Amino acid sequence: MSKRTTLLVLLCVSVAGWSSCGSTSSHYVYATSANQVLAFREDPHSGVLTPVPGSPFVTGNGARSAVLAPSKKFVYVANAGDNDISLFTVSKGTLTEVSPRISTNGTPLFMAIDPAGAYLYVATTAPSNPISVFSIASSTGVLTAFGSSPTGVTATGMTLTPSGNFLFVASAGAPGSVSVFAVNAGVLSVVAQTTVGTNPVGLTTDSGGSFLYVANSLDNSISSFSIGASGTLTPVSSFADLSTVPVALLVDPSGKYLYVGNTGSNNITAYTISSGALTVLSTSPFGGISAPSSIAVDPDGKYLLVGSQSSGGIAVYRLDASNGTLSSPATYSSGSSVTSIVVTD
User: Fold this and answer.
1) CA distance 286 to 119
2) What letters, b where the CB count within 10 A reaches 16 and e where it falls short, cover 133-158?
3) Residue 294: enclosing H or E segment and its boundaries?
4) How far apart are CA 277 and CA 284, in angstroms?
5) CA of 1: how far to CAs of 12, 201, 224, 268, in Å?
6) Is beta strand 130-136 parallel, antiparallel or unpaired with respect to 143-150?
7) Pairing between β-strand 74-79 and β-strand 84-91 as defined by DSSP bridges
8) CA dihedral angle for residue 163, residue 226, residue 207, residue 285, rounded to 10 degrees
9) How far, CA to CA in Å, does 34 sit from each of 117, 207, 342?
10) Interior CA angle at 337 toward 224 and 239, to 5°?
């Protein structure tokens, strides 16, 4: 072996704990907070967050939620205080806003983007509380109004199946409900409305789009449903959460664990999943974050990132894929409430 080859091998070994030779060691984290977007580089080997140069990036007032285009070239932010949407282009983690912002007429509450990156769905408080649909220009990310579908209810949560075939919209009540919409090339059609627990907030599906989970914030329960071929929901179970005011849900990439952010008890509860049914982890709940209200996972499924509804910032937990346990978190200051988090590689 030549001296040069030997030196290269030794160098690879010396940094193996941090990065593989030739690998790209960069994930990016974007979190909405007040009138800005916090941007971090995440080291995928340690979970450590480092602010991206220029962060935080200014957006509209009351940034409520953010979504990332599947191309990873664009980030959209719903500005609840200004009734509009900001478009940012992404380059090596840095965000650049594209003018002008797009009006939503009413307050934008939640957003979802289809897996092809062709349409953006926005739940708003405009008259009749419609889901506004925007088409997305693939080369520029620019939004164009495409249509809307009235819901008649104020959305408290929204999620799209990974295939993009069905959109679920939660609305408050005792009991609350989840409305199901079939989606076809940006056009929404009502399928059904299903009763859930009191004041549903968080919604999520598994990666296969087979099951829907709903966090019922005011009766401290989690509802699970199987999703039929037509989008209809069939109850699997209603599980009494062990903590209070559950508002955020996430299924890990393996599909084995469900994590629940509980703003009332300042912790994360975790459950194993079996055909949609839930069993609480014996090591759960996990503390270290005040008023958790948003949850994301890094692309490798190794770290859970949790945003605080108070001024607790972002907590990063290491996720043990063998048993679902979360480590004690590292925390990063935000200065104000974190309302949503997205992560990309």
Assistant:
1) 37
2) bbbbeeeebebeebebbebebbbbbb
3) strand 292-297
4) 17
5) 15, 61, 59, 52
6) antiparallel
7) antiparallel
8) 150
9) 26, 30, 16
10) 15
- What is the structure's pLDDT at 9? 34
pLDDT averaged over consecutive 10-residue blocks of the chain (345 residues)? 38 35 69 95 94 96 95 96 97 96 94 96 92 96 95 93 96 95 96 95 95 96 96 93 93 95 96 94 94 94 94 91 95 90 92
pLDDT of residue 7: 34
17 CB burial (10 A radius; 0-12, 13-18, 19+): exposed
CB 144 within 8 A of CB 133: no
pLDDT given for residue 25 in this prediction: 59
SS3 content of the chain, % helix, strand, coil (to 5): 5, 55, 45
DSSP assignment of 107-172: -EEEEEE-TTS-EEEEEE-STT-EEEEEEE-TTT--EEEEEEEE-SS-EEEEEE-TTSSEEEEEE-
Q: Check residue 13 and give its pLDDT.
A: 34
Amino acid code (one letter) for 306: V
Please name the residue that has the structure tokens 């979190």.
31
- Rounded to 5°, the CA angle 115-119-121 comes to 100
* 3-class DSSP state of 281: coil
DSSP alpha helices (H): ranges in the chain? Answer: 3-14
Q: Which amino acid is at 137?
A: A
- Burial label for 321, CB within 10 Å (0-12, 13-18, 19+), is middle
> What does the chain come to in residues?
345
